[in-house]
Amino acid sequence: MKVQLFVPPAGYLAERWSRGTSMPPLGILYIAAVLEKEGLEVEVVPADILNLSWREIIRKIETSRADIVGATSTTENRFQSFKLLQLARQANPEAVTVLGGPHASMAAEDTLAHFPEIDIVVRGEGELTMLELCQALKDKRKNFDNLKKIAGISYRHNGQVITNPPRTFLADLDSLPYPAFHLVPFEKYNFKIQVPGKGLLPAANMMTSRGCPFNCNFCATPVNWGRHVRVRSPLKVIEEIEFLINRYGARVIYFYDDTFNLSERRVEEITELMIARRLPINWCCEVRLDLMSKQLLSRMKEAGLFQISFGLEAGSERVRNEIINKKIKIEDFHHLISWCQELEIIPSVFFIFSHPTETWEEAQETIKIIEEYQGKIEATVAILHIYPGTPLEREARERGLLPPDFTWSKKHVRGIVTLPTAQGDVPLFIDRLTWAQISELLFRWSMSGGRISLWRKAINVFKNIRSLADFKRYVIMALVFLKLKIKKLWTKARKGRNK
To answer: Is the four-CA dihedral 146, 179, 100, 355 of positive or negative sign?
Structure first.
């Protein structure tokens, strides 16, 4: 049996990967590694990194004649994933088509109901599910009677969408082989990270845990990975770091855990091993800010940490703790920033605008924090996205922000606001803030040292105008930008006259 796994041409549509660097796709590579270990033939096709056209993708599918053609999906790139499997059905009609990834996991029935070309959706962790799927289809490739006992899949049978029970999350992450980096052109990812004082260094990504015990209203992680956090042992973590150093020349490790510091003791054990083995590595990770202590942060710094990322999300305590359910005190944020400055660690902070019931005055609290800490933090902002399967999606449907007939499988839904160029083709949660207010917040962030120049995107933005409503929104953004620019120049001129 042969399995062909695709990343769609647009990749993961994140701004940080738009300038010639990207990260290998851990999800697909873990699945590939497990299948290879069991003797299956696996081909991984990162169409984004290989810069493949749709014609070239069709040719690859025709040439491979794989028994299973699979694709990963995020909500941002879902339409490309759908298209890829539609083309796979035409190019290789005998293959079983499988869709996985975060979006498919959260919108399996919606996807299967609208795309007859997609045979099966793998929900959640895919390693063991895909292995069982291959075993079930090995001799009778399209006899779907064999699928009844496979947990974690949804599929179509006799015109009906069938959803099997969810799969129990993998308890022993140490049992997984390393991701199959050898199946992709690792060097083409050009994965490099800027380390202060050392410049751009070759990097590699890895996960040391899965799951999140917290319950932010906009996040799908607890559903995709589970609320119970499963971890790899510190020794296994160190062994993989050494493997990435020796095999792929990594000098920076990007830990892709949702909450790397969930267990202080485990982080201490990992850092002690890093120091004891004198690993020639710098690293960064995402943390929960109120779980950090100055002592732990200092130890992490000693072991090579140079940057931490974390979400504050909103300046307003009401919004942050009652609406988002973040349960974080602003004092903990201020303390952590102070410690980062003292230890010369870069704090990268996530903020979001337009939360449910968030007022203009409350949104001002967020932008004022960003402006107050200009030059002291790397601030990343977004307009609140609605993702399938989240508490926020349920609220959006209940309040009519997503119409009753809304489906994740159709583009250009009337009344749904998206910014496909800047924020991905994902519905935005627009509640009390006006579009002019949201635009002002975004541009004030950009003018306060935001890592992305929003105006730089103007040409691509206007290429994606799909309706009169889109045009009006972009005109409003342009007018707000000009107003802020004029105000900034006027303030600068007044200061000059007063000197």
So the answer is: positive
Tokens 């499997």 -> residue: 85
Judge residue 209's burial from the number of C-beta atoms within 10 Å of its C-beta, 0-12 exposed, 13-18 middle, 19 or more buried: buried
Using 50, 70 and 90 to split pLDDT, how confident is the model at 330? very high
Q: Which two tokens stand for residue 463?
A: 């290429």
Check: CB of residue 308 under 8 Å from CB of residue 286: yes
Q: Tell me the residue ranges of DSSP E strands in 294-411.
A: 305-313, 346-353, 378-383
Triad 377, 335, 359: Cα angle to 5°: 65
- The C-alpha atoms of residue 380 and residue 175 are separated, in whole angstroms, by 35
Amino acid found at 170: L
Beta bridge partners of 195: 199
pLDDT at 459: 54
Joined together, the tokens standing for residue 239 give: 């062994």
Reduced to 3 DSSP states, what percent helix, strand and coil does the chain have, rounded to the nearest 5? 45, 20, 40
C-alpha angle with apex 328: 323 to 329, nearest 5 degrees? 115
Q: Is 217 in a helix, a strand, or coil?
A: coil
Report which of 193, 377, 186 is spatially closest to residue 282, judged by C-alpha positions. 193
pLDDT tens-digit map of 229-254 = 999 999 999 999 999 999 999 999 99
Cβ 44 vs Cβ 183: under 8 Å = yes
Scanning 168-233, the segments in alpha helix (DSSP H) are 221-224
Q: pLDDT band for 499, please (50, 70, 90 cuts).
A: low
Torsions phi, psi of 52, nearest 5? -85, 140
**Can you give the pLDDT at residue 19?**
59
Q: What backbone torsions phi and psi does residue 299 show, to the nearest 5 degrees? A: -65, -40
For residue 416, count CB atoms less than 10 angstroms from its CB and return exposed for 0-12, middle for 13-18, buried for 19 or more. Answer: buried
The neighbour count for residue 320, using CB atoms within 10 Å, is 25
Burial 327-348 (b: 16+ CB within 10 A, else e): ebebeebebbbebbeeeebbbb
User: What DSSP character marks residue 164?
Assistant: P
- Are 169 and 225 a contacting pair, CB within 8 Å? yes
**Residues 420, 311: Cα–Cα separation, whole Å:** 23
Ramachandran angles phi, psi of 59, nearest 5°: -65, -40
What's 386's DSSP letter? P
| Widest distance between CA atoms in the chain | 83
Question: In which residue are the tokens 């995107």 written?
Answer: 457
Q: What is the pLDDT of residues 453-480, one digit of tens each?
A: 555 555 556 666 777 777 888 888 889 9
CA 20: distance to chain centroid? 18
Q: Which residue has the higher pLDDT, 452 or 317?
A: 317
SS3 108: helix
Q: Would the pTM of this model clear 0.90, i.e. be above it?
A: yes
Q: What is the pLDDT of residue 108?
A: 97
